[in-house]
TrEMBL record:
Name used for this protein in its record: NEW3 domain-containing protein
Gene source species: Christensenella massiliensis
Domain Alpha-galactosidase NEW3: from-to ranges: 178-242, 282-355
Record-annotated membrane-spanning stretches: 374-394
Keywords per UniProt: Membrane, Signal, Transmembrane, Transmembrane helix
């Protein structure tokens, strides 16, 4: 009997032990997962494609999951034969990085791992293993994968938010673009534009007024650009494509911008010499050659000539209507100005106006009226005759 009781006690103890083991396993299984070792080392792009002979840069972030700050040693645990690499921080080669915990702000620590691929590396996929170790079990590893390929890989982007703008010839067209370096290494880009003759294209960092001709972007960096396009002074209506180029040592990126000039309208009334003064005699007709110029960027239709002159004056044109004047061109018309026969010597103003369907322009001409020379001679003769007559009268009757 005693042996049977002892066996039952042993079975009870074993059963209780099993329950405790299962309960402990369940409790441990339901506990929140912690980052291995309390340190996390990461990069946004752990797998990249590059060519043999290139240097690839991996921006790294290190975070403490323990809440405490960690003085972390950095090392390369595994590297393909012949490859070289180093850690860089704040412009210097480093071997350790300080990772702030919650007690010091809790911000991520940043570093960059630079990897050089030998020139003779065959195409294929290669692994690199990095290690961060802060001691006391706080450690992490990061595996990088590099696909070595002989083919060119598009590593950047140059795009405009709005690639097509429309406006008059007098406008300045402002485009917003973004230049991105998607490669694993720093790139220096030179900026240029292939614009029509007489056009001006400038580049400036977004929100800044300083014009630039080049800029440098780190691996994975992007920069907003303000591109200002000013058309030539004599531009005509139409569509114009302006390729903007960002060129580095490894690639050439192009953003094509389009400007649509809707045209401007302008007229000018003048003379071939620019002189707006003429001489005339009372009652006589004076011919004046007019220059009617289209100063806009669009063709003008149905240009009519009219005049405003002093009372008693008249103005006629050899052609009072012009069917059309293309942009930038001039048409010559002769105006015949006839002054009044009663006009006294002096300056008079005659206004000539050119009116098109789209715009109008005027010019004021100063007409200097002079007395005819023959009438001056006649007047002088009359005065002489009258003086001689008075003289004879005095001679004849003065003696008496």
């Amino acid at each position: 009997m005693e042996q049977k009781a002892e066996k039952r006690n042993i079975r009870r103890i074993a059963a209780v032990g099993m329950v405790l083991v299962i309960a402990a396993a369940l409790l441990l299984g339901s506990a929140p997962a912690q980052a291995a070792g309390g340190l996390v080392m990461s990069t946004d792009y752990p797998g990249v494609t590059a060519k043999a002979g290139e240097e690839v840069a991996f921006p790294l972030e290190l975070d403490s999951t323990t809440g405490a700050s960690l003085n972390t040693a950095l090392s390369v645990a595994s590297l393909p034969e012949g490859w070289t690499g180093y850690f860089e921080g704040n412009g210097s080669q480093i071997s350790r990085v300080f990772v702030k915990g919650n007690d010091a702000g809790g911000e991520s620590a940043a570093a960059t791992f630079h990897l050089t691929i030998p020139e003779d590396t065959p195409e294929g996929t290669y692994d690199v293993l990095l290690t961060g170790d802060a001691g006391s079990g706080a450690a992490d590893t990061l595996q990088l994968q590099i696909n070595v390929s002989a083919e060119e890989v598009a590593q950047g982007q140059f795009v405009s938010q709005y690639s097509e703008l429309q406006g008059p010839a007098s406008a300045t067209f402002n485009f917003s673009a973004t230049l991105s370096n998607n490669s694993g290494s720093e790139q220096a880009y030179s900026l240029a534009a292939q614009a029509p003759e007489g056009w001006q294209v400038t580049f400036a960092p977004s929100g800044e007024s300083s014009q630039i001709a080049s800029l440098t972007l780190g691996a994975g960096e992007s920069q907003g650009l303000d591109i200002s396009v000013t058309p030539a002074a004599n531009v005509t209506a139409g569509e114009y494509t302006i390729p903007c180029i960002a060129a580095s040592g490894g690639e050439t990126l192009t953003a094509e911008l389009k400007v649509i000039i809707t045209g401007t309208y302008g007229l000018q009334v003048s003379t071939p010499s620019g002189n707006l003064s003429v001489d005339s005699y009372a009652g006589s007709e004076t011919a004046v050659t007019l220059s009617i110029t289209n100063t806009g960027s669009a063709e003008l239709q149905n240009v009519a000539l009219t005049s405003t002159a002093p009372d008693g004056w008249s103005v006629r044109f050899d052609s009072a209507a012009i069917d059309s004047i293309p942009a930038g061109e001039t048409r010559e018309v002769t105006a015949y100005i006839t002054s009044s026969t009663d006009a006294l010597s002096g300056d008079y103003v005659t206004q000539i106006t050119a009116t098109a369907n789209e715009t109008t322009a005027s010019a004021e001409f100063r007409v200097a009226v002079k007395t005819q020379t023959v009438w001056g001679i006649v007047g002088a003769v009359i005065i002489v005759i009258l003086a001689y007559a008075v003289y004879r009268i005095f001679r004849k009757y003065g003696r008496r």
